[in-house]
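Good morning,

Attaching, inline, the backbone tokens for the sequence recovery test we're adding to the shared suite. The designed sequence is right after.
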């Protein structure tokens, strides 16, 4: 119903903007298919009046003109509905240029470049080069995963998806059915936060572990979508950035500098090993596995077991 109404409003706006003379209700009804399908004149009149009010609330200036014979017509003059000129100073143009560069490794690069070209045509000063304003900085968000674009569109359109996902502790991927909420880039990796229908709970998925094609599904969401702040907190928690405990590990001397940077205490054990205390939150086991034989978990026992399980899964292939 929402899509049908949006299409009807768009058709009415195009009719009113495209005409050179006022159009009567009769002419508008004959030009727009949704109005032709109205069951009666009263139904059409109510629908038209609501649509006209909605367009005016959206900012469209609609004039009502009465002809010499008393017939009322409607039109939206283009000069009354033209957007003001776009004016950007050097700093604003530079910010847009940096935004375009951020996405130059993704398929969004074409859209970003096209947007800047349109701004140039709309009056962006010729002496301002948004791509070179901060040449010493090259901010980029790497997007190598094929799942990024279909998931981004699914988040935007609120469409459920299905994909195969391989957990770090599993040898084979498993099918997942997800209501996607948002994509977040965390510590150089992209994550999808959403509602896992099979498990009936919110989950976060690392895009690099999605295998095969992301498939969209019909139907509406079954769970409410939280606000942006909640989603980001969820991603941070599942990515291991929120810690409520500490873990004690042995770390080979001269290795694991990211772990050393997070350590709350460290001491030398001798024989080429050090002992560290580090914050312990969800996702720490997956991070420790990346350091292979250079890390040994001393406590807690559940973290040690999780790391061992992940290492066994990796060994099995």
């Amino acid at each position: 119903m929402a899509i049908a109404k949006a299409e009807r409003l768009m058709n009415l706006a195009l009719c009113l903007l495209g005409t050179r003379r006022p159009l009567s209700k009769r002419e508008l009804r004959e030009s727009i298919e949704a109005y032709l399908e109205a069951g009666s004149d009263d139904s059409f009149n109510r629908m038209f009046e609501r649509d006209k009010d909605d367009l005016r609330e959206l900012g469209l200036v609609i004039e009502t003109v009465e002809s010499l014979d008393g017939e009322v017509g409607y039109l939206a003059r283009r000069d009354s509905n033209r957007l003001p000129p776009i004016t950007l100073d050097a700093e604003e143009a530079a910010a847009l240029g940096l935004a375009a560069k951020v996405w130059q490794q993704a398929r969004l690069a074409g859209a970003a470049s096209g947007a800047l070209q349109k701004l140039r045509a709309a009056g962006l000063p010729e002496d301002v080069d948004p791509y070179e304003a901060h040449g010493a900085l090259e901010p980029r968000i790497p997007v190598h995963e094929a799942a990024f674009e279909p998931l981004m569109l699914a988040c935007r359109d609120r469409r459920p998806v299905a994909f195969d996902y391989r957990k770090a502790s599993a040898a084979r991927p498993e099918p997942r059915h997800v209501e996607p909420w948002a994509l977040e880039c965390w510590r150089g990796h992209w994550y999808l936060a959403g509602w896992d229908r099979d498990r009936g709970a919110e989950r976060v998925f690392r895009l690099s572990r999605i295998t095969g094609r992301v498939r969209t599904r019909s139907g509406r969401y079954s769970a409410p979508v939280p606000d942006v702040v909640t989603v980001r907190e969820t991603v941070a928690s599942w990515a291991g950035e929120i810690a409520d405990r500490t873990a004690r590990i042995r770390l080979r001397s001269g290795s694991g500098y990211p772990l050393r940077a997070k350590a709350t205490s460290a001491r030398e054990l001798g024989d080429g090993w050090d002992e560290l205390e580090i914050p312990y939150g969800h996702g720490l086991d997956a991070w420790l596995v990346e350091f292979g034989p250079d890390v040994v978990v001393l406590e807690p026992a559940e973290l040690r077991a999780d790391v061992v399980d992940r290492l066994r899964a990796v060994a099995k292939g």
